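FORM 7B: Structural annotation worksheet

SECTION A. Query
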Amino acid sequence: MASAKFKKFKLKVNLGFLGIEGDWEVDEIQRNAAWEIYVELVTRISVVELKPEEGLLREALSSLYSLFGTTREILKKYGPSISSPQNSDDTTLGHIAIAVLNKSLRPILSKWHPLLADYENKRSDDISITAHERQWQHANELRAEINKVREQLTDYANVLADVAGVSRLH
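SECTION B. Predicted structure
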């Protein structure tokens, strides 16, 4: 089913791992998919700074990991039309979404999930999960990496808000 054109705009974004510049024709399907991904991003730790004495690193990593499942479901729901460019030089929501998963989220998760899990398995019953995690020698390093990814995801959220045609809620 062909979708009606919604909006054509100039796109210039640098997510650190992905720089895109050019025209992007956004139709209603891409707009709706962008909105759904945007809602997932801005309602998680992904765009909120994780301060030193706040939250758990495990919860932050799990929240970031859950973006894989929700993004996959959204991409499957809207189908190949959100990944099929009008012109060979054009970008699509599908291209950007997959790049974010594979180039921004996958590296941090593949490195830190197993390292944190190994450390978590060493916790004795007489210490709380929070206290144990805060004693981890790599806790500050992981928090710094989470915040670096947060900056990239905030840029991504900005693009999604623009594509969805909504004000930035984050």
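SECTION C. Observations
Residues 10-164 form one domain. The longest helix spans residues 93-120.

SECTION D. Sign-off
Analyst initials: ____
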